[in-house]
TrEMBL record:
Pathway: Metabolic intermediate biosynthesis; chorismate biosynthesis; chorismate from D-erythrose 4-phosphate and phosphoenolpyruvate: step 3/7. Involved in the third step of the chorismate pathway, which leads to the biosynthesis of aromatic amino acids. Catalyzes the cis-dehydration of 3-dehydroquinate (DHQ) and introduces the first double bond of the aromatic ring to yield 3-dehydroshikimate. Belongs to the type-I 3-dehydroquinase family. This is 3-dehydroquinate dehydratase. Homodimer. GO terms for biological process: 3,4-dihydroxybenzoate biosynthetic process; amino acid biosynthetic process; aromatic amino acid family biosynthetic process; chorismate biosynthetic process. The keyword Amino-acid biosynthesis applies. Keywords: Amino-acid biosynthesis, Aromatic amino acid biosynthesis, Lyase, Schiff base. The lineage of its organism: Bacteria, Bacillati, Bacillota, Bacilli, Bacillales. Its EC number is 4.2.1.10. One of its GO terms (molecular function) is 3-dehydroquinate dehydratase activity. The gene is aroD. It comes from Nosocomiicoccus massiliensis.
Length: 228
């Protein structure tokens, strides 16, 4: 089964109010809300925004993407930020950058509060070799992830084929917790793939792509309309 994640584009609470209206109209087109905390400048506004999103009655995935992984957030403040937000705001899934933080005590604490952990790793320039990608996924699983997400920029079609094969193999190995994305135009096919090459989550947008190769959630719902 593939769940559709809509990545929000709002940069402040005023923009979020309009986006909330659009989300209400499109609520059948997605399963999970991804809120990008690195788009906001104030932690208290982030907390207010997350409480406001509860009115949609959808699961909330909180992501704070740092500059080193293609976002706008501070690498230096990453750990203190996710600790603060996860302690004060309502969320169901926390995206944790695998290379930024993986302390076992924190992971255990988060999971004890019924927050699922999604470990992520991104490279917007290239696709690592098979051994490297597999090592990262294995490490995520061994660090007690509920979901393992890797997203890479393919240089050629062989990179996309490699990621598809790794997705299939790791689904067989670990179950429906694997998310593997090839970014950009070349990798769009990974966002709409069916069994056995579909990820646990596929990420889309309402209107404007928030990552290279993202497509609109309306299209994703057509692909996964029966949510097999």
């Amino acid at each position: 089964m593939t769940e559709i994640v809509v990545t929000l584009s709002s940069r402040n609470l005023t923009e979020l109010q309009q986006e909330l209206k659009d989300l209400h109209h499109a609520r059948d087109d997605f399963d999970i809300l991804e809120f990008r905390g690195d788009y906001f400048e104030d932690d208290e506004e982030i907390i207010d925004a997350l409480y406001g999103l509860r009115e949609l009655n959808k699961r909330i995935l909180y992501t704070y993407r740092t500059e080193s992984e293609g976002g706008y957030g501070s690498d230096d403040d990453y750990v203190s930020h996710i600790k603060y937000i996860s302690a004060h705001a309502p969320l169901d899934i926390l995206d944790i950058q695998y290379n930024s933080y993986r302390e076992a005590a924190f992971i255990s604490h988060i999971k004890s509060r019924s927050i699922e952990v999604l470990f992520s790793h991104h490279d917007f320039l290239k696709t690592p070799d098979e051994k490297t990608v597999q090592s990262i996924i294995d490490g995520m699983y061994e660090s007690f992830a509920d979901y393992c997400k890797v997203a890479y920029m393919p240089s050629h079609n062989e990179d996309v084929e490699l990621l598809f094969e790794l997705l299939k193999e790791n689904k067989e190995k670990y179950g429906n917790m694997i998310i593997i994305i090839a970014m950009g135009e070349r990798g769009k096919i990974t966002r709409v793939a069916k069994e056995p090459y579909n990820s646990a989550f596929t990420y889309g947008c309402l209107k404007t792509p928030q990552a290279p190769g993202q497509v609109e959630i309306k299209m994703l719902r057509e692909v996964y309309k029966h949510n097999e």
